# Entry
Amino acid sequence: MDKINNILFDLDGTLTDPKEGIVNSIVFALNKLGLQENFIAELDTFIGPPLRESFLKRYNLTNEQADKAMLYYREYFSMKGIYENKIYPGVKELLKSLCGHHYKLFVATSKPTVFAVEVLRHFKIESFFNEIVGSNLDNSRTDKTEIISYVISAFGLQASNSIMVGDRKHDIIGAKNNSMKTIAVTYGYGSSGELLSHQPDFIVNSCKEIEALFIK
# Structure
């Protein structure tokens, strides 16, 4: 790919499949709030977007209830849910190859930075990244546009030679809002309709296809 030096990766649904841990953490939080979820399969929609917004929207919570939901979620997630996670096939090989060809790699995720670092460390892929940037534990900087903007400004990147890789519309929207090219992956949690409607520059089905865009 021409003139790309920096590659930003989403985490959930792009590098790892966090479904089990996220769903278990949501159910734990709901139980603590005295709420019940009858359609567990629909909780896939929580993977990718800012978590607090998803709680507010799906359960019509007050701000106070949403704050409690986040605390309860993190209570379970920090102890167990963070490790109920799987790395996608080919991720480690992809990252090693990109680093070997001198691309600078970053993580840009709505997950709190402290949890993102622990996930990457758990799977032994933390060292491939120049920087890991997520949201703050006080629920600030959760929007993907904000997160990508922070990466650009904090580490002196040029948007014109950077690209965002992600599985949801939030990744594409956030990158476009920062004048950055985008790669959408189909193996995560965004439907083909969701991804196509936001017109990413590239759509790929595997880590091998990501690698092929950068390394000929």
About this structure: The chain has two domains: 6-16+86-214, 19-83.
